[in-house]
């Protein structure tokens, strides 16, 4: 069961109500797709925000539709676009 | 009736307009006087020098910088990693800053100070008091002045060697290419996604690097799009615009003043590197600033997306069709940072602040209980000020607290109020048992609609919220 550290930024932090969350993934579903599904289950209102987010696994860009494998200790950042200034 | 010596609403508005115009004229005059004085000083200096025969030059140099340049930029010239040739390139470069707000303010000041050759400043708005906590290029004296004029004045005062152009009509599909064409680098310092997509596309079709930053709340982002062989563009990273309700705006969500400041300064750093030709430009990397955590994170990005509609293999956005592209339809948002004004309720479920005030005063006169007013704004706004008889339930908690709302209506005598000053309301809406108030009149409508779904049918919304109340009834109210 890999433990993943999820970091929420900006609107994602606001909607999830926290800036960091530890998530345990099942061994047979250790990838970003399963992580996203689990996050939506845990924070339903995150679903629409996630549609336009950038995901980063260990500071490396990943598309939402990608199914990138995750391992113990990986850090996944949820980064919504900012448009203010 | 207002006393005779008080200016009437329309007179006051005219006086305010006059004042804004005068301020604008004053800003322009001040700039002209400063320019003339500078020219005079330059002329005086050269006359003095011409008094005698020019002394023979006792030194050799082969660069384009004058003595004034060398003195002014000496700390750049001393810097081993920057130096003479980078400063020369910077002095010949031109930068367009789209947006003279929280990001554009520090970016413009640092770029003017650093000696960029030409600075273009775009905006369409005038300086407002609520801008000054972060838009530090503007001043109290220039509230009401066009932002591009105000910013140009500050840049000219800081460095008269820099040529400053103002673009006063804002940035839109019709003028985008014409404006961008004249510059080497573009800074995205705007406050809304609609203009961001437009700036991106203009830069892609004209092949200009785009130094882009954004800030909302306590978060900042920075990257350089469309730079080098393979760097992605804004659309590569964000092919879909977020839904309007998922866009955080400084005007709604707030912003910590120095956060856009930090991001704007970093934009200036990237421009100086890019034009000077030093260092690694922040392309294909997204820098994220979390001010509360005190943390900078850099995410490595991928190259261009081959299917990108702007910079991909078969782009559908081109130089020829960009002006006709409907950016407002694409993002679903007007090119401003104001939330769209909703109109979801029929007129029968809406009252003006004046109508509510009428009900309140007639209740007071006849000794009846005041009408029930429900304020659905967030707690921080409610505690700033609220109507004296308002009950506070934040919009997000309506569902959970609907029984409280029903009790509130039962407790008020408002249902019976139909005489005196409130005759109009009484006749039109004898059912108004609850007046729902918010900041600007959007959430109050959504709240009334939601309450109807929850079985509360006699609630009405106060059009335009506290902002409208303050504007039409009580200018002394500290609205935000
Ligand atoms: Zn692209």
TrEMBL record, chain A:
Pathway: Cofactor biosynthesis; molybdopterin biosynthesis. InterPro entries: Beta-grasp_dom_sf, MOCS2A, MOCS2A_euk, Mopterin_synth/thiamin_S_b, ThiS/MoaD-like. The modification Glycyl adenylate is found at residue 85. This is Molybdopterin synthase sulfur carrier subunit. Signal peptide: none annotated. C-terminal thiocarboxylation occurs in 2 steps, it is first acyl-adenylated (-COAMP) via the hesA/moeB/thiF part of MOCS3, then thiocarboxylated (-COSH) via the rhodanese domain of MOCS3. Belongs to the MoaD family. MOCS2A subfamily. The modification 1-thioglycine is found at residue 85. It comes from the Eukaryota. Coiled coil: none annotated. Pfam families: ThiS. Acts as a sulfur carrier required for molybdopterin biosynthesis. Component of the molybdopterin synthase complex that catalyzes the conversion of precursor Z into molybdopterin by mediating the incorporation of 2 sulfur atoms into precursor Z to generate a dithiolene group. In the complex, serves as sulfur donor by being thiocarboxylated (-COSH) at its C-terminus by MOCS3. After interaction with MOCS2B, the sulfur is then transferred to precursor Z to form molybdopterin. The keyword Cytoplasm applies. SUPFAM superfamilies: MoaD/ThiS. PANTHER family: MOLYBDOPTERIN SYNTHASE SULFUR CARRIER SUBUNIT. It is found in: Cytoplasm.
From TrEMBL, chain B:
InterPro entries: MOCS3/Uba4, Rhodanese-like_dom, Rhodanese-like_dom_sf, ThiF/MoeB/HesA, ThiF_NAD_FAD-bd, Ubiquitin-activating_enz. Pfam families: Rhodanese, ThiF. The keyword Protease does not apply. Its EC number is 2.7.7.80, 2.8.1.11. Pathway: Cofactor biosynthesis; molybdopterin biosynthesis; tRNA modification; 5-methoxycarbonylmethyl-2-thiouridine-tRNA biosynthesis. Its main location: cytoplasm. Residues 42-51 have a biased composition (Low complexity). It is found in: Cytoplasm, Cytosol. Binds 1 zinc ion per subunit. The active site is at residues 250, 438. In the N-terminal section; belongs to the HesA/MoeB/ThiF family. UBA4 subfamily. Plays a central role in 2-thiolation of mcm(5)S(2)U at tRNA wobble positions of cytosolic tRNA(Lys), tRNA(Glu) and tRNA(Gln). Also essential during biosynthesis of the molybdenum cofactor. Acts by mediating the C-terminal thiocarboxylation of sulfur carriers URM1 and MOCS2A. Its N-terminus first activates URM1 and MOCS2A as acyl-adenylates (-COAMP), then the persulfide sulfur on the catalytic cysteine is transferred to URM1 and MOCS2A to form thiocarboxylation (-COSH) of their C-terminus. This is Adenylyltransferase and sulfurtransferase MOCS3. The gene is MOCS3.
């Amino acid at each position: 069961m890999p433990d993943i550290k999820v970091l929420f930024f900006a609107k994602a932090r606001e909607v999830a109500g926290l800036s960091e969350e530890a998530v345990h993934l099942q061994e047979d579903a250790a990838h970003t797709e399963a992580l996203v599904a689990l996050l939506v289950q845990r924070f339903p209102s995150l679903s629409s925000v996630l549609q336009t987010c950038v995901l980063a696994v260990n500071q490396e860009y990943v598309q939402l539709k990608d199914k990138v494998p995750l391992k113990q200790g990986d850090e996944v950042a949820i980064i919504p676009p900012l448009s203010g200034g | 009736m207002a006393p005779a010596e008080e200016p009437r609403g329309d007179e006051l508005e005219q006086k305010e307009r006059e004042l804004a115009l005068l301020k604008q004229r004053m800003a322009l005059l001040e700039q002209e006087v400063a320019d003339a004085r500078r020219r005079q000083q330059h002329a005086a200096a050269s006359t003095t020098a011409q008094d005698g025969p020019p002394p023979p030059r006792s030194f050799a140099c082969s660069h384009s910088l004058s003595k004034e340049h060398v003195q002014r930029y000496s700390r750049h010239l001393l810097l081993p990693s920057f130096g003479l040739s980078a400063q020369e390139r910077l002095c010949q470069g031109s930068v367009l800053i789209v947006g003279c707000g929280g990001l554009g303010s520090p970016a413009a000041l640092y770029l003017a100070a650093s000696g960029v050759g030409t600075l273009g400043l775009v905006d369409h708005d005038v300086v407002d008091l609520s801008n000054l906590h972060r838009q530090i290029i503007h001043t109290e004296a220039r509230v009401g002045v066009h932002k591009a004029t105000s910013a140009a004045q500050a840049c000219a005062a800081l460095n008269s060697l820099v040529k400053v152009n103002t673009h006063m009509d804002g940035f839109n599909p019709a003028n985008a290419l014409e404006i961008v064409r004249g510059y080497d680098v573009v800074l995205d310092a705007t406050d809304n996604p609609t203009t961001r997509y437009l700036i991106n596309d203009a830069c892609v079709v004209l092949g200009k690097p785009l130094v882009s930053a954004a800030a909302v709340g306590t978060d900042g982002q920075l990257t350089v799009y469309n730079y080098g062989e393979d760097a992605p563009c804004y659309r590569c990273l964000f092919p879909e615009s977020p839904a309007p309700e998922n866009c955080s705006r400084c005007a709604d969500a707030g912003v910590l003043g120095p956060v856009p400041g930090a991001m704007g300064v970093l934009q200036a750093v990237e421009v100086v590197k890019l034009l000077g030709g030093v260092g690694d430009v922040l392309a294909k990397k997204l820098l994220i600033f979390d001010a509360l955590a005190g943390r900078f994170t850099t995410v490595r990005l991928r190259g261009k997306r081959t299917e990108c509609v702007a910079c991909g293999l078969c782009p559908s956005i081109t130089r020829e069709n960009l002006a006709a592209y409907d950016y407002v339809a694409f993002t679903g948002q007007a090119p401003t940072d104001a939330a769209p004004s909703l109109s979801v309720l029929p007129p029968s479920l809406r009252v003006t602040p004046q109508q509510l005030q009428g009900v309140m005063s007639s209740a007071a006169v006849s000794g009846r209980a005041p009408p029930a007013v429900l304020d659905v704004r967030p707690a921080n706004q409610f505690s700033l000020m609220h109507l004296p008889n308002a009950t506070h339930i934040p919009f997000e908690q309506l569902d959970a607290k609907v029984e409280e709302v029903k009790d509130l209506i039962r407790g008020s005598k408002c249902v019976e109020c139909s005489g005196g000053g409130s005759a109009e309301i009484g006749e039109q809406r004898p059912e108004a048992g609850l007046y729902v108030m918010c900041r600007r009149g959007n959430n109050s409508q959504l709240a009334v609609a939601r309450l109807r779904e929850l079985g509360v049918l006699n609630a009405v919304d106060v059009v335009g919220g506290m902002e409208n109340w303050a504007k039409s009834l009580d200018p002394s109210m500290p609205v935000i």
